[in-house]
Write a structure and sequence with these properties.
The chain is of the alpha/beta class and about 290 residues long. The protein is built from eleven helices and eleven strands. The strands form two sheets. An eight-stranded mixed β-barrel has the order 3-4-6-7-8-9-10-11, surrounded by five helices. A two-stranded antiparallel sheet has the order 1-2. Helix 10 links the parallel strand 10 and strand 11. Helix 1 crosses helix 2 and helix 8 crosses helix 9. Bound molecules: ligand C2E and magnesium ion (MG) (3 copies). Keywords: Membrane, Transmembrane, Transmembrane helix.
């Protein structure tokens, strides 16, 4: 690999790399320019209160369309951005852009922004959030930061300090992908989470594994005891929704209601929300 083009920039000629690694290297190089070239944008997925059936907030999800590689999933490029150090710049852009779009078009909704564990540990994290709030005029209590459960393996003091500082600003904190990582009860009590997002993996099992329902009920009860709101991720079937409702889960997101979409489309969806009644479950596949 030959270094070229200034600090932090690598051009590779590496025939020994496999195809997968070559793709990662070209993603890394392209990612550094993606922001400048305006290739990044946000899509929004609504979060709906299951009992009242209202849209209560929306989650900003990053989208990248590369001119040659086409659409690249954040699940693929966020880890690359974390490794090559460009996550700070991208994360700051997402925060500001999300707050601006929400303040302009998502009146009355809270806004969820995914924050990478790497970003959370950076000393500039707090300034990024303050700048986003200032630039947009969004009230701090309307902003929620989603942090994926994986980080709590490391449990760094920097991350903990930043979480508490965010809370002091009035920002809400959600634990994303709960049930896939390693959170212990001690962590759940020590970290100042407002919201627990139950991972999509549980939704698949809800329909055919009886114990999955008991597990989800237990997660919801646990969250309640700890004073957290619960959100089910990846809800696709009316039967899943009904099981979640009976378990006392407060909110849901998923294709059953809407896929992530541009902010203007979400604005339209909300204007016509009265047409979206809660889907009826019909017969549940297993009796409760
Ligand atoms: P996440 O935060 O857990 O977001 C939920 C993912 O599930 C999104 O994928 C969403 O499109 C997808 N999803 C929502 N409802 C359903 C459903 O009913 N069925 C199925 N099969 N999928 C559903 P997406 O947008 O590809 O994002 C993947 C992950 O990438 C996110 O998981 C998040 O961890 C990360 N990510 C996305 N945007 C950002 C960002 O701006 N910053 C950071 N740091 N990470 C981001
Ligand atoms: Mg999320
Ligand atoms: Mg995630
Ligand atoms: Mg998630």
């Amino acid at each position: 690999a030959a270094k070229e083009g200034g600090r932090g920039r690598c051009e590779y000629f590496a025939p020994w790399l496999g195809e997968r690694n070559r793709r990662l290297v070209s993603i890394e190089q392209a990612l550094r320019d993606a922001l400048r070239r305006g290739e990044l944008c946000l899509h929004w997925q609504p979060r709906v209160d299951i009992e009242g059936w209202q849209v209560v907030s929306a989650e900003a999800l990053l989208r990248w369309r590369h001119p040659e590689l086409g659409h690249i999933s954040p699940a693929e490029f966020i880890p690359v951005a974390e490794k090559c150090g460009v996550i700070g710049e991208i994360g700051a852009w997402v925060l500001t852009q999300a707050c601006i779009e929400a303040q302009a078009l998502l009146t009355g909704l809270s806004v969820s922004v995914n924050v990478s564990p790497v970003q959370l540990m950076r000393p500039t994290m707090l300034d990024d959030v303050r700048r986003a709030l200032q630039a947009s005029g969004l009230a701090p209590h309307r902003l929620e930061v989603e942090i994926t459960e994986g980080i709590f393996i490391d449990d760094t003091p920097e991350a903990l300090a930043n979480l508490h500082a965010l809370k002091d600003l009035g920002v809400q904190i959600a634990l994303d992908d709960f049930g896939t990582g390693y959170s212990s009860l001690a962590y759940l009590r020590r970290f100042p989470f407002d919201t627990m997002k139950i991972d999509r993996a549980f939704m698949r099992e809800l329909l055919n594994q009886h114990d999955a329902r008991a597990i989800v009920r237990t997660i919801v009860d646990l969250a309640k005891v700890l004073g957290m709101r619960t959100v089910a991720e990846g809800v696709e079937e009316p039967a899943q929704l009904e099981i979640l409702r009976r378990a006392g889960c407060q909110d849901m997101q998923g294709y059953l209601v809407a896929r992530p979409m541009p902010v203007a489309e979400l604005h339209d969806l909300m204007a016509h929300w009265h047409l979206h009644a809660r889907p009826e479950p019909g017969e549940l596949p297993l009796s409760l």
